[in-house]
Amino acid sequence: MTKSSSSDSAPAHCGSKPKRLAIGIAPLGTVSIGIVPMGVICIGIVPMGVVSIGVVAMGVINLSIVGMGLLAIGANTMGVWTVGPMSMGLVQVGARGGHDSESHNHKSHHHNSHSQSNSEDDPRFMAFPTKAEAEAQARQIGCEGVHQMGSHWMACGEHPTDQR
After folding, report:
1. What DSSP designation does 51 have?
2. Residue 17: exposed, middle, or buried by beta-carbon count in 10 A (0-12, 13-18, 19+)?
3. Under 8 Å CB-to-CB from 98, ≥6 apart: which residues?
4. Which residue has the higher pLDDT, 140 or 1?
5. In sequence order, what E strands does the chain have?
6. Is the pLDDT of residue 23 over 80?
7. What angle do CA 24, 47, 152 make, to 5 degrees?
8. Residue by residue, what is the 3-state secondary structure of 52-91?
9. How far apart are CA 68 and CA 55, in angstroms?
């Protein structure tokens, strides 16, 4: 099922030497195009490589709907640098949801599991890397205490419910 630019026409798979150009289902190559391509440059449904372009991409640089990597550009991305409306990363590049990037602290992120409402604009859903930042946010919005959410901290003693 995998095509190759080399003379070897056998399909590439995990453990085999990558082809220069691989096309097919789960192709392994320097340049891979297909359903689950793996390699340096990958284009497909679930690409995994250094540069990944597709629907659900995993790699160093991702252009996708859901991307995970060092630089991820898409609708829902996770990485060090992220661009997209529902992105979580160390640095949010560009605008998020129509707001300018200056209005968001690059150290904070939003919980986006509450997609049915405007929770992204609700300061109760902001998470901070330090307890002190969450405590300051709690004082600012008028609630008491903070709580830990994974490796981040959120204002208020309990996680808010979105009942709008």
Report:
1. E
2. exposed
3. none
4. 140
5. 3-4, 19-24, 28-34, 38-44, 48-73, 76-83, 88-92, 109-110, 126-128, 146-149, 152-155
6. yes
7. 160
8. EEEEEEEEEEEEEEEEEEEEEECCEEEEEEEECCCCEEEE
9. 11
Return d(Cα 85, Cα 41) in angstroms, integer: 25
Give the position of tokens 């949010």. 92
Q: What is the DSSP letter of 125?
A: G
In whole angstroms, give the CA distance from residue 130 to residue 107. Answer: 9
Residue spans of the domains in the chain: they are 107-164
pTM exceeding 0.85: no
CA separation, residue 41 to residues 15, 32, 68, 118 (Å): 18, 6, 15, 37
Higher pLDDT, residue 104 or 70 = 70
For tokens 């399909």, the residue is 11
